[in-house]
Specification:
By secondary structure, the chain is α/β, with parallel strands linked by helices. It has helices at 17-22, 27-33, 37-47, 59-65, 90-96, 98-112, 126-141, 172-179, 208-220, 222-227, 259-266, 300-305, 324-338, 344-361, 367-378, 388-413, and strands spanning 75-80, 116-121, 146-149, 154-162, 203-207, 236-243, 249-254, 276-280, 314-319. It binds flavin mononucleotide (FMN) and iron/sulfur cluster.
């Protein structure tokens, strides 16, 4: 397919307003401002655009849910937090094609009746923030952002808000808390943000890539968009491929493309002389797939049928040199650090999982630790306030499910069998750290 979202990313000045406008930029906004807001929502619904932030929820429906009959202002909160391991697509769009995002934000705001869009960007993205702010100013000077946009009477501002760099700030209600200046901890739902979001006002929280899809839908129509992919999985999709492949990077394809094609044809496949052992198809938060499961379209629905999730479409590839106990330990190190601490199963459970995995990996674990691991993970999944708990449990649960023999080998041999001749120094007081709790 011809790239839609990454069309300009390799052009030296592809991020500038001049370049964008010369290449048809902001024409979709002009068209949208001549339409009725509800008709825009209908077009997006008919196109079948599904959110690219992880859950794949239909965007048209989300916009429809935004409370209409209210004296309160409405908002779009663009989720640009992008902190999940393996996920690095949104910052490419923002840095290399920022006006596409602004155009999506402006059309979205017009459709739901909002006058302000906030781009909530991950704290570490200083450089991207600078690019966005400079380009917002350029767009404002040219009349695309601000008051009376293109002489139509539509007013809309876009602000960039830099978060503190916490993974949990990407959860939509935690993001709203953070935008309001509070700690990024999730709210209880309902009410959903579409009814009571930012400052208690109706808010649509949309991912960067989701909003970047909107201009092409307005320009080319919903039938074109839907026809690009399998049913209910239309449009272009960005895949981030990382790990043991020759050409890691961001690739644009339709969701008809198989996981194998993305990994082998686009990202070059495993390193010479190596074979793939495991693949996490949707960022670190989803169940692991095995090599024989790669011949499925990389779509929301097909990956779910295979027992995992497309999530943020961050495909992490691990070859036979990877110790799966270590991989799970590594991920739990992340989740334990990033748990916001609001609910007990997640706060205590992620720490417990990490400790069990650490002692198993270092060869200090017992056989009973393997079942303890699945037991603790099973008591986190589905029992927490937000999906972070499920995400943290998934690596431990599926690593044991698919690679139990490897866990047992660690216990039997008293070391990591993948690192011949290597053994962690026994840690002082390892048993005393609640290790065998
Ligand atoms: C722990 C956690 C982290 C998340 N991080 C992000 C993120 O960085 N970016 C994002 O767009 N969505 C993230 N999400 C999903 C958002 O909560 C929300 O579903 C999404 O922003 C909605 O946008 P969409 O409908 O356009 O996908 C995260 C969810 C959870 C539970
Ligand atoms: S599941 Fe974890 S991250 Fe989510 S609210 Fe509970 S403690 Fe916070």
């Amino acid at each position: 397919m011809d790239p839609v979202l990454t069309r300009f990313v390799r052009e030296p000045n592809g991020h500038t307003l001049d370049f964008y406008v010369k290449n048809g930029g902001y024409e979709a906004l002009k068209k949208a401002l001549g339409m009725q807001p509800n008709d825009i929502i209908d077009v997006v619904t008919k196109a079948g655009l599904r959110g690219r932030g992880g859950a794949g929820f239909p965007t048209g429906l989300k916009w429809k849910f935004v409370l209409k009959d209210t004296p309160l202002p409405k908002y779009i909160a663009c989720n640009a937090d992008e902190s999940e391991p393996g996920t690095f697509k949104d910052h490419v769009l923002m840095e290399r094609n920022p006006h596409l995002l602004f155009e999506g934000c402006l059309i979205g705001c017009y459709a739901i009746g909002a006058k302000v869009a906030y781009i909530y960007i991950r704290g570490e993205f200083h450089h991207v923030q600078r690019v966005l702010e400079a380009q917002i100013e350029a767009a404002r000077q040219a009349g695309y952002i601000g008051t009376n946009i293109l002489g139509t009477g539509f007013d809309c501002e876009i602000y960039v808000h830099r978060g503190a760099g916490a993974y949990e700030a990407g959860e939509e209600t935690a993001l709203l808390e953070s935008l309001e200046g509070k700690r990024a901890q999730p709210r209880i739902k309902p009410p959903f943000p579409a009814v009571a979001g930012l400052y208690g006002a109706p808010t649509a929280v949309n991912n960067v890539e989701t909003l970047c899809n909107v201009p092409a839908i307005i320009t080319n129509g919903p039938e074109w968009y839907a026809s690009l992919g399998p049913e209910k999985n239309g449009g272009p999709k960005l895949y981030c491929v990382s790990g043991h492949v020759k050409r890691p990077g961001v690739y644009e394809a339709t969701m008809k493309t198989t996981l194998r094609e993305i990994i082998y044809d686009m990202a070059g496949g495993p390193r010479d002389g190596h074979t793939i052992k495991a693949v996490i198809p949707g960022g670190s938060s989803v169940p692991i797939l095995l090599p024989h499961q790669l011949d499925i379209p990389a779509s929301f629905d097909e990956v779910a049928k295979a027992g995992s999730m497309l999530g943020s479409a961050a495909i992490i590839v691990m070859d036979e040199t990877t110790c799966m106990v270590w991989a799970a330990e590594n991920l739990l190190h992340f989740y334990r650090h990033e748990s916001c601490g609001k609910c007990t199963p997640c706060r205590e459970g992620t720490d417990w999982l990490y400790k069990i995995l650490r002692r198993l990996e270092s060869g200090e674990g017992a056989m009973s630790d393997i079942d303890l691991l699945t037991n603790v993970a099973g008591n986190i999944a589905g029992k927490t306030l937000c999906p972070f708990g499920d995400a943290a449990a998934a690596p431990a649960l599926t690593a044991v499910k698919h690679f139990r023999a490897e866990f047992e080998a660690h216990v039997r041999e008293g070391r990591c069998p993948h690192r011949a001749g290597w053994r962690r120094e026994p840690r002082a007081g390892a048993a005393a750290q609640g290790a065998h709790a």
